[in-house]
DNA sequence: TTGTAAATCTTTAGTGAGTAAAAATTTTTA
DNA sequence: TAAAAATTTTTACTCACTAAAGATTTACAA
């Protein structure tokens, strides 16, 4: 049995988040004061801070809510049977999804907060989601390797993380520029991977390495 | 002949930057108020804002000052005759240089500001420096290709940018974690590149692409 | 040399995010 | 049902940042 207190808490956080979404949509992030959100949600300004700490804290929760469907979408669309097309679709899907409900400016604010709020709750929440996406990609790549599409000598953990980081860099570039489209992202990832995959391993690339993130 | 006005401006911006560097070092960024910097430099708080706009604006100038020697350092150290070692040294040198005079927190603040201040002066200054570094790497890679170390079919622009973005992702990870060392960066880039270079080009990787960033 | 124009700085006043703590309120529980 | 615990609101504060008016200094032309 959930106590009244727990239900009220749930209710308030919902109201605050809904108010924030509405007002951000209507007046923009800069044009929305914490006080406005508080009024709209029927609580005091300090309560908003108590629930979400900062404006970016509200935003990261909008993103998390939005991203609950992303993994399903990836599962549906990332069925390619070669590494190249898989990676491109992975990147494209993430970019498209990111802007399907939220504006780029939301992402910029959150990424900035994650960068500074070292190991804070915002950073943790963001990294957790990132982690899930990276695991997904690595899993797909592992399947490809099992099917013989990727040499058995390749470390799929390393490969997956490398491609994920590349995707991430292009994603940040994407949200930092209002002009760039998800087509552009796919296109650039294509260029990145074509070039990288066309380089034959030099002798020194066979350096022995111990596993690490 | 430089007028008195120009000299005073030069002098003031120097004093502000020196005061900022000193106080940041002594009391940390959070522990240093704009007013403190102003007092220490002998100007008013508003003048500090007029000169550097924001706290991050001061920081980016500290970074620019610091980075004036980076390209020389890269030129000296990046003499490898294979792509793999070159890329690793490139990444390592940037990471080492970044923390040789400034703390990681400075980089975090600036990267955050660059992310949000879309197309502002802070972002421009940062991207300009990034651009120089990317051009440097591409130049080196082009030399390698001329020497026959890289297949002629590889687009060096694309390859250079891909590796640079990967380096950038690892660099951000580096400054976002107080634990990570430049050895760790080198190590991870090694893992990234070993995996990427070991993947043989799938048929679909030969997609025709037109040049773009 | 001197007075006016232009540039620059300081003062003043304000907005808004975020924090801390005391006071008021509500829920829980014994 | 009254005391204890949790939670919210009120209050008061710090600090970054901005805008505009007023003061000061430099530049320059007569």
Fold and architecture overview:
The structure is a homodimer of 213-residue chains. Chain A has 213 residues and is mostly helical. Chain A has two domains: 4-52, Arc Repressor Mutant, subunit A; 67-199, Tetracycline Repressor, domain 2 (Orthogonal Bundle), CATH 1.10.357. Chain A has helices spanning 4-27, 34-41, 45-52, 55-67, 70-77, 83-101, 104-116, 121-146, 156-176, 182-197. In chain A, helix 2 packs across helix 3 (45-52) and helix 6 packs parallel to helix 9. The longest helix of chain A is centred in the middle third of the chain and has 26 residues, at 121-146. The radius of gyration of chain A is 20 Å and the shape is elongated. The N and C termini of chain A lie far apart (42 Å). Mean pLDDT of chain A is 92; it is low at 201-213. Chains A and B meet through helix 6, helix 7, helix 9 and helix 10 of A and helix 6, helix 7, helix 9 and helix 10 of B. Chain A binds a DNA duplex (30 and 30 nucleotides) through helix 1 and helix 3.
Number of strands of chain A: 0
Structural class of chain A: mainly alpha
Sheet having the most strands of chain A: none
What's the CATH topology label of the largest domain in chain A? Tetracycline Repressor, domain 2
Which outline of chain A best applies?
Answer: elongated
Number of helices of chain A: 10
Helix/strand order of chain A: HHHHHHHHHH
User: How many discrete domains of chain A?
Assistant: 2
What proportion of the residues of chain A is helical, as a percent range? over 70%
Low-confidence stretches of chain A: 201-213
Question: What percentage of amino acids of chain A are in beta strands?
Answer: under 5%
* Largest interface: pair, residues per side: A-B, 59 and 59 residues
How big is the Rg of chain A?
20 Å
In whole angstroms, how far apart are the ends of chain A?
42 Å
What is the name of the CATH class of the largest domain in chain A?
Answer: Mainly Alpha
Looking at how many chains there are and whether they match, the oligomeric state comes to homodimer
Give the CATH architecture of the largest domain in chain A.
Orthogonal Bundle
